User: Which sequence fits this backbone?
């Protein structure tokens, strides 16, 4: 079963709606027993970095997820804040992240004329090594809502988004893990293809 | 993709879709779910769905229709109409809607704007401002589908909403609504130059040039339109339409 982790932040219904559209059943839960049984995990989320980490802690999910992802190698897809939490840390907060990706988050530089939050569709390109973009449609575009983005180009970077000419890493992939800054569940057929790739290629 | 969002607005009332002129003379457009499905197939940037009668309903927003829309839309959707509590917002977001728009509540209970912004994030909270120029040339904010003048001055109101944590302003000109004669660029540019959150222009769009002007001349961050995306030709035959992504890219170059 595909499990969408509910830790109190974000629009989970729309992810389930899109999975249903591509014929995939999923459950939305914070129940540890159900999460332990999951064949694949989706870590969504909208909100602040510290609130996200605190909620995961309060639900006693951090260790369960670590074993599931890093030891059992269960496939996981982080979306938006979910992807950010998979990194080491963020300028937005003081809590350490889950640290599965060696990456950190910085705020968009308003001095460069970038309004914050970045809330728009953006052209998104991929490296050939990306599994999550396998056979993606031409000119892929995704819907983004975020104030922080991945700093520099860490190892495991596979996707890049563009905001008014400023390019930033918007996707990370390594082994059983993928994280994307944008919202595939709100990005038409591009998002559907991405979710399908996660289901089939991870 | 274009760097400015282009957003169809659908007006809903008691199980049907309507399109107004100056907030009156509602013309029946058709079944809401059918229209939403077509817009989804046309891969619109975003959709705004406003229940223009919900404020009259003591039961609040029609959750059944909201749920149906959310399950048909694979793009961001903003719902507005009859929202007056945190619980309603929470429920609507859980159904798979990204943003809620507050109009009457923003005027009558501004603390809800602050509370909702804190809990759900600023980018989730849209303030829908229906504005009309008074005899004295002052733009005033109207509520209850344009029926009631709050007497609040538009720019002051917008600044207050921004301070309270609103993420976006949907500025709808009552006088321009449904006329397809172009946006009210005056109020859009005044707001866009004095407010830092995105201003979404609404009311009056008739063609692509109007969309371009709202962005390039008046400084809107996004453009919304009703008639332009539901009518076709001079006799206003109902036909759901939306520019191609390639056309929009060219338009905003």
Assistant:
């Amino acid at each position: 079963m595909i499990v969408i982790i509910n830790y109190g932040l974000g629009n989970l219904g729309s992810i389930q709606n899109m999975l249903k559209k591509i014929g995939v059943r999923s459950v939305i839960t914070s129940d540890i027993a159900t999460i332990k049984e999951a064949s694949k995990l989706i870590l969504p989320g909208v909100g602040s970095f510290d609130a996200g980490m605190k909620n995961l802690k309060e639900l006693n999910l951090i260790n369960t997820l670590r074993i599931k992802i890093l030891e059992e190698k269960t496939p996981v897809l982080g979306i938006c804040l979910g992807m950010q939490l998979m990194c080491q840390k963020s300028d937005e907060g003081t809590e350490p992240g889950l640290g599965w990706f060696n990456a950190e988050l910085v705020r968009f530089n308003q001095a460069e004329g970038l309004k914050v939050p970045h809330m728009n569709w953006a052209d998104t390109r991929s490296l050939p090594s990306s599994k999550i973009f396998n056979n993606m449609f031409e000119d892929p575009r995704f819907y983004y809502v975020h104030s922080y983005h991945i700093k520099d180009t860490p190892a495991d970077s596979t996707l890049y988004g563009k905001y008014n000419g400023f390019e930033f890493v918007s996707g990370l992939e390594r082994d059983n893990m993928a994280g994307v800054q944008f919202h595939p569940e709100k990005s038409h057929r591009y998002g559907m293809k991405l979710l399908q790739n996660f289901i089939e290629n991870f | 993709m274009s760097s400015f969002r282009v957003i169809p607005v659908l007006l809903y009332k008691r199980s049907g879709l309507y399109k107004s002129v100056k907030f009156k003379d509602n013309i029946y457009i058709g079944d809401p779910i059918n229209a939403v499905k077509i817009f989804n197939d046309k891969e619109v940037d975003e959709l705004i769905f406003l229940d223009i009668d919900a404020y009259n309903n003591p039961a609040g927003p029609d959750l059944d229709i909201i749920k149906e829309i959310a399950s048909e839309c694979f793009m961001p959707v903003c719902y507005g109409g009859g929202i007056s509590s945190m619980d309603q917002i929470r429920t609507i977001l859980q159904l798979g809607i990204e943003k809620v728009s507050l109009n009457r509540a923003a005027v009558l209970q501004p603390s809800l704007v602050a509370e909702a912004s804190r809990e759900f994030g600023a980018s989730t909270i849209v303030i829908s401002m229906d504005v009309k120029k008074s005899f004295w040339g002052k733009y005033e904010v109207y509520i209850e589908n344009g029926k009631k003048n709050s007497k609040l001055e538009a720019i002051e109101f917008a600044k207050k909403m921004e301070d309270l944590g609103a993420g976006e302003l949907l500025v709808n000109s009552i006088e321009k609504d449904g006329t397809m004669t172009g946006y009210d660029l005056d109020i859009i540019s005044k707001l866009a130059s004095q407010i830092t959150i995105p201003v979404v222009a609404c009311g009056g769009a008739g063609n692509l040039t109007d969309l371009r002007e709202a962005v390039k001349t008046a400084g809107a961050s996004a453009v919304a339109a009703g008639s332009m995306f539901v009518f076709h030709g001079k006799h206003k035959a109902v036909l759901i339409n939306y520019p191609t992504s390639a056309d929009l890219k060219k338009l905003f170059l």
Observations:
- Chain B has ten helices and 14 strands.
- The mean pLDDT of chain B is 95.
- Chain B has one domain: 5-251.
